[in-house]
Specification:
Chain lengths: 332, 315, 332, 315
């Protein structure tokens, strides 16, 4: 299959959906400058630069979505979502319900985050869990170019507001993507690898670390299910529970901070709905409760790496759990 | 378009009666605290009367006047405030964010500034789809302090969005006087900072408001550019019910009470002999009947089923 | 002991701390109007009304805190925090770390939330978990007047940004408060009731529902630990684990939505660090994944009520767990 | 206060050399992409030279000029950009949000508008504590589009906060020209909307910037009221490195290249005979040496220990 970067997959998804549906448009700071191809094909009305003001960009998207357009907005980096929380959470997320169903908000919010570029905590903050916690929103965070394409197309077609998180270092990595129409339904996790001893659940960049860890573990005779969530809301509970009920062991991995993160939700899910099947404590390997540092070695240490995942998983399977005082993030 | 002052007066009396009834409901524990627009009826009736049927309205927490001026059903309004099933929003909104899409009142937000953030999007969909409808966005002098005001007006200016911004400057921002929140008297003066036009009008003279709003709406319709209309008025009751207004300067309040928009319109009609006491009484009787019927409807309406708790969250 | 409402406790805490420390000040929309007493005692410089703009109120607090003042700001209702997320999260929460420790941010952010007043989802949204998930912040949510007093005093003395959430219907309910100096350290949960069969963990208004449920359960011969978290960040892990290791059964209760809420964090904590002691699935009884409705009966149904807590807990202890399809919120 | 043009020129050359070195580091993979202020050196040197020792500065992502003009240690700057332990922020900030409290550069934010939100608080602490220090807040024309600009300036006006707002209007907002983001040419014109004073100055003439900044700072110092100073300049390089500037109008760029603030200062000094080629070369040599020493320091500095990952989160 042809190779393509996640960036190109995003561009392709935008172009295909704008071709398919004239109500799809995109705007944001520098969007028209950076996407000359889209501007050339779809014109200046549907591909726009905006003033530098995230709040009104998101509010404009919500208002336009309620009145029949399907806007995609690029808010650049996840920390900038802080300027648009009212429009995303209080307007797009709530006004359908509050109006008794008079409006819906088919819009997509693009943003980037994740360690790798050394840009520091005001450009890199994995805050996706905020939106998983908020009503009326959907949340997507892909790990490979094919999913970037298929999930973005599904997000644009969805009638609800979708937060679409792009893990920075993944954006320029190539991957196989089919030439044919490719849509990945929201809410379906993908099982990347099968094994009976352990379930690794993760999403975004750390999917690759989990897969690498699983490979190491096989060498030690430990067989691992690796689940790439892909959509964080709605969560594919069935896929997670199916695997955990099979393996009886769960390790959740993500770069975002631990407390009240997506890993907490998955661990809680297992402790409630797979309790009888669990053979070991549920572990979370996550980023620390700290802002993201710019310094390269610290930034790398922020992210749960393959080695740390493999070590923790092996200990778990062998029956010694981590000491309570062992930090759960990658420097452990 | 022209304004029939008698018609305008009866609308204003209807709004006043509706809100006084709300206060009664609140006091008797039948409805939660609400924000009334008593004293600002001329702004609602004057502006809304200047709009066309295909224009859209965004409003805020102080919306009863705008809704009723636009012809909202009083029964469904009362029902919404009481949290009943037949309310405009099925009881999920309550009084603070009533939208009534069927009459073109869309996307109300009680987040001060929220409606300013949404209006640009509503106007964008209008300009993408063509047609000559415009968008009227009501907001307060307090909302003009929020950053979203700045962002909204600037974007509308840069993108040529057909928005009639209507700032109801009622001198109060909850429990804070406008004087404490800005050095300038008038919000319309800020239009220049965005390269657009603005105007301030006496908000207690319904004919003056109608005239200014008609001119402004015509400009927006013709140029597709935003216009910043400031309606200078005063909040005669508290921020919400109950509110003893202990923090209000009695002289200022008295000055504005003397300029009650309803009294001004009545006086003008009587002077010109277009309305006499009997006419006025008849008009008031009609309003009382409508209120009574509406209340009966709302009280008869059931509460929503508990299963409604989780419906309409996702499309 | 004398009785006092939570509102009076907040006023008393403010007055006492402003008397103790001249660097403490308070501002917000209508603060000076509503707190004439403080304005009279401490003057117009330390007790201020502000323009209507949450973002700059929070930013001003962060800037002032970094330069040696100890501001308390009242942002009124929790959904309005959406306008101040950048200042709270990206500035106050991160700039200490990002500056290599050059600054600290001793500030308190007051806001109200919670069902009871029928004000709807743009005035009532329990979003406290967002801040528990964010680095550099502390989060407090008291359940009774004495804790409102003691925790607010501790929050004002803390050198970190503290989000202080006030559950609306609690504000006017009287409770016993000592006349003497009363400071409740941040990070300490309180054990309201002891029993060996079950641990109920909760905070805010639902503490009272949990206590009522515990009383019902005693009638059925079930003895319950009831833990009032009081501080949500830092979490009193020791108190939670001590109880769960004793009872082997955990039910977490809160009004906030379930996914990635504080209940998820506590369930995950138990599944990892008390796994060997758990005798039953960990249950969460929470608000639904929906905005808060205004309509009174719906608003009540949003909140986990004593009856629902007692029923779920009894089933758990008796060994039948809730059917997976049973909704966990109060309408169950 | 007066400005020694030779001193100012050498500062500008130092800033230029520092940033060109950063570009080199970036290209050779020794440092992540950074934002340079090439072409804007006169703004940094002119304004900062007009400040007193006890004044405080807030800056943004394009801060090198402000920091160096204020006397920041080049070695610690390079070390910070490289993520080394001896950087101003221990390597945790990187290039985008360097604060240097010891020289009065506080609370830098790379959230556009962030520094505007914090400046009011810094100024508040100043006015609560007395003393006559003022606060200078640097921000861009893009930041002036953010709501926080509106909120910050309005609060400073209402509360009498001693803030010298310095808008570096360099015509670009990342990849968007100012023309696309506002209908008005000048940000200083917005001062009137807040009831304060403002002025626009030629940002490529360091003496003009110094003169205007000195007047403005004196006003703020005396009146304790904010002042909105706009420095009209141009971003000669890309938004960050690397950036091919393919989106930039070559004629506009050429026009501004011809007005390079360093060349302008050199020409003026040569005309008036205050500086000759040899003097200039000597000056440039001195700068080269300082850069070399600073780089040596930064490269010798170790990376922070991994335990630093979780320090300095909480006080
Ligand atoms: C973001 C936000 N902040 C504060 C409030 C609380 N509040 C509701 S109305 C109001 C005053 C609004 O003043 P103004 O905009 O002048 O409108 P008015 O009430 O005078 O009509 C305030 C502070 C809110 N609803 N939203
Ligand atoms: C809130 C926010 N939005 C977007 C960005 C990305 N960004 C960084 S600098 C910049 C342009 C800023 O333009 P201006 O304020 O004029 O400053 P300049 O870069 O021209 O000095 C943008 C869009 C950001 N850092 N923060
Ligand atoms: Mg007002
Ligand atoms: Mg610029």
């Amino acid at each position: 299959m042809p190779q393509m970067t996640a960036n190109d997959a995003v561009s392709r998804a935008l172009a295909e959906e704008m071709r398919r549906d004239p109500s799809v448009m995109i705007f944001g700071e520098g969007v028209a400058t950076k996407r000359q191809d889209l501007r050339a094909e779809f014109g200046t009305a549907r591909v726009r630069n905006t003033p530098l003001a995230e709040g009104i960009i998101a509010g404009t998207a919500a208002g336009a979505a309620a009145m029949g357009l399907r806007p995609v907005i690029d808010l650049l980096f996840a920390p900038f979502l802080c300027y648009a929380m009212d429009e995303i959470v209080n307007s797009a997320g709530k006004l359908r319900y509050m109006s008794g169903g008079q409006f819906s908000f088919p819009m997509v919010v693009l943003s980037m985050t994740g360690a790798g570029w050394g840009v520091g905590a005001q450009h890199n903050h994995n805050n996706e869990a905020w939106f998983v916690h908020s009503p009326g929103l959907k949340v997507v965070m892909p790990s490979n170019p094919a999913d970037f394409l298929g999930l973005l197309k599904a997000a644009i077609r969805d009638d609800n507001p979708v937060l679409f998180f792009c893990d920075m270092p993944l954006m320029f990595a190539p991957g196989e993507v089919s030439d044919r129409e490719h849509v990945v339904p929201l809410g379906e996790a993908s099982l990347l690898r099968e094994g009976g001893d352990l379930t690794l659940v993760t999403y975004g960049k750390t999917v690759h670390n989990a897969v690498a860890a699983a490979a190491k573990l096989t060498a030690d005779g430990i067989q691992t299910d690796v689940i790439d969530l892909r959509t964080l809301k709605p969560l594919d509970e069935a896929a997670i529970l199916r695997s955990v009920r099979k393996t009886g062991r769960l390790v959740v991995v993500h770069e975002a901070s631990r407390t009240c993160g997506v890993g907490a939700e998955i661990a809680a899910l297992a402790a409630e709905k797979a309790f009888g099947f669990l053979r070991a404590p549920v572990l979370r390997l996550t980023g620390p409760d700290a802002p993201a540092p710019a310094s390269f070695p610290l930034e790398q240490a922020f992210v749960p790496q393959a080695e740390a995942i493999a070590v923790a998983a092996a200990r778990l399977v062998r029956g010694h759990t981590l000491k309570a005082d062992t930090p759960r993030f990658a420097t452990a | 378009m022209s304004l029939d002052l008698i018609e305008a007066l009866s609308r204003m009396i209807l709004i006043r009666a509706y809100e006084e009834k709300l206060v009664e409901l609140q006091t008797s524990g039948k409805a939660p605290g609400t924000c009334t627009s008593v004293g600002q009826e001329a702004s609602a009736v004057g502006v809304v009367s200047a709009l066309a049927a295909d224009d859209l309205i965004l409003t805020n927490h102080r919306s009863a006047g705008h809704l009723i001026a636009r012809g909202a059903d009083l029964g469904r309004l009362f029902a919404e405030v009481m949290g009943k099933r037949d309310g405009y929003c099925g009881g999920k909104s309550g009084s603070l964010h009533i939208s009534a899409r069927d009459i073109g009142v869309v996307l109300t937000s009680t987040i001060v500034g929220g409606e300013l953030g949404l209006a640009t999007g509503v106007a964008l969909s209008r300009s993408m789809k063509g047609g000559d409808g415009i968008v009227a966005c009501f907001f307060g002098d307090g909302a003009a302090c929020e950053g979203r005001f700045h962002e909204s007006v600037n974007l509308a200016a840069v993108w040529d969005l057909p928005i009639l911004y209507v700032c109801e400057n009622n001198a109060w921002q909850a429990f804070v006087h406008r004087r404490e929140t800005m050095l300038t008297e008038h919000i319309a003066d800020r239009a220049a900072a965005y390269g657009i036009e603005g105007e301030t009008v006496d908000g207690n003279d319904v004919e003056a408001v109608f005239a200014a709003a008609s001119r402004a709406a015509a400009k927006v319709r013709a140029t597709r550019k935003p216009f910043l209309l400031e309606v200078a008025t005063y909040r005669l009751r508290g921020h919400y019910e109950p509110d003893d207004q202990a923090y209000v300067d009695p002289e200022e309040l008295a000055r504005w009470r003397a300029r009650d928009p309803i009294a001004l319109a009545e006086a003008k009609l009587k002077e010109t002999g277009r309305l006499n006491e009997n006419g006025l009484r008849a008009l008031e009787r009609g309003v009382r009947d409508r209120i009574a019927q509406a209340i009966a409807f709302a009280e008869a309406s059931p509460y929503p089923a508990l299963t409604e708790l989780t419906t309409q969250v996702y499309a």
